Structures are given as structure tokens and as C-alpha cells.
């Protein structure tokens, strides 16, 4: 059997099956903009947050952040690292990569205190998790996708496991 024939056995999906894991509400310090030869860097440091959902609950600890790089194409490349402390005291390392594309006036609107509606921006991340605790080891075995909403000095994530 050729590989083309094997792939033909898979159903063609129009939507990925997903399970809602949690929502994460992250508070951020104001951006630290840094002009560089490779693009505009914007560093956002986490001041804390809340994790709530059917599969994970707890808090986001202060000190993590997003080291965003905005290229000449106007697309932001996300590089997030943070620590989650679960409701039962387990520490989980959280990382996410992704893409941010906001309307041309998006940064001005955020600076003015506006929330960028989900339908007007493209903010998608691919979170990964690490912990040695057996109760949460399953997190290191999932492919996750985050849909995000931007607000001034705040970002909300809705995180799903792709089944």
C-alpha cells in the first residue's frame, strides 16, 4: 500500500474535534517596545492571572511573559512562557507560540483602552505544558490550540485539546 492510499483512508475533516480544557485570564504590565534590526519587539511581563475550566484550574504566577516579535509584514510572532499553579498546588510550565494579526488601527485602539473583538483580530496560539506531577502529566501529551482576545494590558485565552 502506498502512503497516498493510506492517507485516503482518513476522513476529510471540515472541523477538528476539540475538548475545552480551560480559559486563562492574564494581566500584563504595559508593553516594553524595542526596535531591532529583525523587527519590533514588544515584551509583556505577566503580573498574574486566573486559570479556570473543566480540566484545569488555578492561577498564573507573576513573572512570565510574552516576547512578541512584529515583523515588517505586520504579523506578530508569539513567544509566551509562564508558570501555572493549579488549585491543588502543582506547578506547570506553560509555553505558547503563535500568530497575532490585528487591524491597522489595532494598537492605537488598545492604547486608547479598547478591547479588540475576536472577529476583528487573528490571535492563535499552540500551548504546550510540562510537569512531572502524575495528576497533570496528561497535559504533556496533548496538542492544544488557544484562541485569544486582546485588551489593554490583558489577554484572554480559551484553550482546547485537539482530539
UniProtKB/TrEMBL annotation:
It comes from the Bacteria. Gene3D superfamilies: 2.40.160.20. Pfam families: DUF3237. Signal peptide: none annotated. Belongs to the UPF0311 family. This is UPF0311 protein N4S67_14935.
Amino acid at each position: 500500500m502506498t502512503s497516498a492510499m493510506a492517507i485516503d483512508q482518513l476522513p476529510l475533516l471540515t472541523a477538528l474535534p476539540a475538548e475545552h480544557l480551560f480559559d486563562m485570564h492574564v494581566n500584563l504590565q504595559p508593553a516594553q517596545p524595542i526596535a531591532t534590526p529583525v523587527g519590533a519587539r514588544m515584551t509583556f511581563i505577566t503580573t498574574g492571572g486566573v486559570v479556570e475550566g473543566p480540566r484545569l484550574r488555578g492561577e498564573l504566577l507573576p513573572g512570565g511573559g510574552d516576547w512578541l516579535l512584529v515583523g515588517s509584514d505586520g504579523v506578530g510572532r508569539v513567544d509566551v512562557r509562564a508558570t501555572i499553579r493549579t488549585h491543588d498546588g502543582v506547578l506547570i510550565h506553560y509555553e505558547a507560540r503563535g500568530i497575532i494579526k490585528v487591524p491597522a488601527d489595532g494598537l492605537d485602539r488598545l492604547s486608547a483602552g479598547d478591547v479588540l473583538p475576536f472577529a476583528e483580530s487573528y490571535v492563535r496560539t499552540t500551548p504546550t505544558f510540562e510537569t512531572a506531577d502524575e495528576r497533570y502529566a496528561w497535559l504533556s501529551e496533548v496538542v492544544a490550540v488557544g484562541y485569544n482576545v486582546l485588551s489593554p494590558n490583558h489577554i484572554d485565552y480559551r484553550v482546547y485539546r485537539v482530539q
